[in-house]
Specification:
CATH topology of the largest domain in chain A: SRF-like
Protein name (chains A, B): MADS-box domain-containing protein
GO molecular function, one term (chains A, B): RNA polymerase II cis-regulatory region sequence-specific DNA binding
Distance between the termini of chain A: 51 Å
Keywords (chains A, B): DNA-binding, Nucleus, Transcription, Transcription regulation
Pfam families (chains A, B): SRF-TF (PF00319)
Low-confidence stretches of chain A: 59-118
Oligomer: homodimer
Radius of gyration of chain A: 18 Å
Shape of chain A: elongated
Number of domains of chain A: 2
Largest interface: A-B, 71 and 72 residues
Main location (chains A, B): nucleus
Mean pLDDT of chain A: 58
Order of helices and strands of chain A: HEEHHHH
DNA sequence: ATGACTATCTATAATGT
DNA sequence: TACATTATAGATAGTCA
């Protein structure tokens, strides 16, 4: 975005991609920090990258540690489905929408209200 | 950041805060999209705000739906500890560091390798 | 590879409708 | 309240040390 506008696609040059990743990760986390402070909301960003073995989460609600532990405990092969095959996984990710989750949650709530389950 | 620099603290004016939140949320998600595409990593951003009843997640790995369901199924009072008392919660959030999680994961891995548990 | 620099691009606060 | 505009603050790609 600067000395020259870049195309919005995977950066093929690896060292370059790594540098960009580092810079942008910092920017992203700063933005997350700002929106939390300015707007009084809570949130977190989670990034799984092949550059780090561990997912980078910052900041994060305690609840998420559980799911992440579970993630880390998956057999290596399964983890790799999510950490290595980015192209496929990204495609899958993007095909989900947050609306799908909201529908799920509403459905569950409806069930609960009908059955009086706590 | 623009017609006038703003202080990095909670915006007290509510409608203004809401507008800022909406704009910045959009920016954040765009940034997340960009880093995923440019750098070939996967990630997600989760924002719990009092503006929306549902946490806003975008995009998200299927694994996370489970923990979020669990979150939504917490008794209302418990959920509110995380969604309403922002000030307290933010303080707590920030006091955590991603290093703490990494230590945990390493510890668990060490245990596993010593006990041969899968 | 890391860090600093900086020219340029992007995000966005304030304003207006 | 929700868009559109726009001038300025902020993020960052390329470069160099």
């Amino acid at each position: 975005m600067v000395r020259r506008k870049i195309k919005h696609e995977l950066i093929s040059n690896e060292p370059k991609r790594k540098v960009t990743f580092k810079k942008r990760k910092g920017g992203l986390l700063k933005k997350m920090n700002e929106i939390m402070t300015l707007c009084g909301v809570m949130g977190c960003a989670i990034i799984y990258s092949s550059f780090n073995n561990q997912p980078k989460i910052w900041p994060f609600p305690p609840e998420l540690t559980r799911v992440l532990h579970r993630f880390m405990e998956l057999p290596k092969e399964e983890r790799e489905r999510y950490t290595v095959d980015h192209k496929t996984f990204l495609g899958r990710l993007i095909s989900w929408s947050s609306n799908a989750l909201e529908r799920e949650i509403k459905k569950n709530r409806g069930l609960k209200s009908r059955t009086n389950i706590k």
